Amino acid sequence: MEKMQKLHFIISVAMALFIAVLLSASSTNLVSASNTPRPFKKHHLHYYVQLDTRSPGISLKFIPPINTTLSANFGAGTLFALNVTKDVEPTSKRLGTVRGYTVETSYLGFPDSALLEVAMVEYDDGKYNGTLQLQGLASQQLTELAVKGGSGSFRGVHGYLVVTLVVDHLPTRTFRHDVTFFVKMHS
Length: 187
Ligand SMILES: *[C@@H]1O[C@H](CO)[C@@H](O)[C@H](O)[C@H]1NC(C)=O
Ligand SMILES: *[C@@H]1O[C@H](CO)[C@@H](O)[C@H](O)[C@H]1NC(C)=O
Ligand SMILES: *[C@@H]1O[C@H](CO)[C@@H](O)[C@H](O)[C@H]1NC(C)=O
Known about the structure:
Elements: H1 2-35, E1 44-52, E2 58-63, H2 68-71, E3 77-85, E4 94-104, E5 115-124, E6 129-138, E7 143-152, E8 159-169, E9 172-181
Antiparallel strand pairs: 1-3, 1-9, 2-3, 3-4, 4-5, 5-6, 6-7, 7-8, 8-9
The structure holds 2-acetamido-2-deoxy-beta-D-glucopyranose (3 copies).
């Protein structure tokens, strides 16, 4: 009889532990679900970047060139923090920012400019929310940057983006970013 009671006790302790484990597992699921933005699984994304030369969001004097007599603009750095919008108009819905810098890596000067660009897009359209990490060579004609990863909705992404100047009315310049994501081999 005593043996039966002991067994009964052990079984109820085991059940209680099992339920506790289930509860804690489901509560972590709930917490992580609400903190994790929906993964971006489409192949294309586009948005517009608004440059206003009157705003404090761009500094051409971030880093001066090393020696303009010897090597043109070599070493000159530009720092920027620009608004990202849904449509071409600067007043259209704001989706985030693009922050980064370019450094002149050509010592030959214009038109042989070769700007190394490193930037980060913060994107939040209400459905997808996260960052994209960009790297590449920026030029007047065509700028194609590699998308080297991201966070939030864009965790683990890879791809490229093409920058097109669509409005060139100083003090306003508007760029369109067309992002193409590569299909994930596994996820
Ligand atoms: C970005 O947009 C906000 C309004 O949405 C504006 O106040 C701010 O000046 C803009 N920033 C730049 C760098 O243009
Ligand atoms: C820039 O380079 C030239 C040519 O080598 C040199 O004569 C000059 O002193 C340099 N200027 C500075 C500010 O270093
Ligand atoms: C988007 O993500 C950022 C960074 O994690 C967070 O601060 C922000 O609240 C998120 N926006 C929404 C609408 O959830």
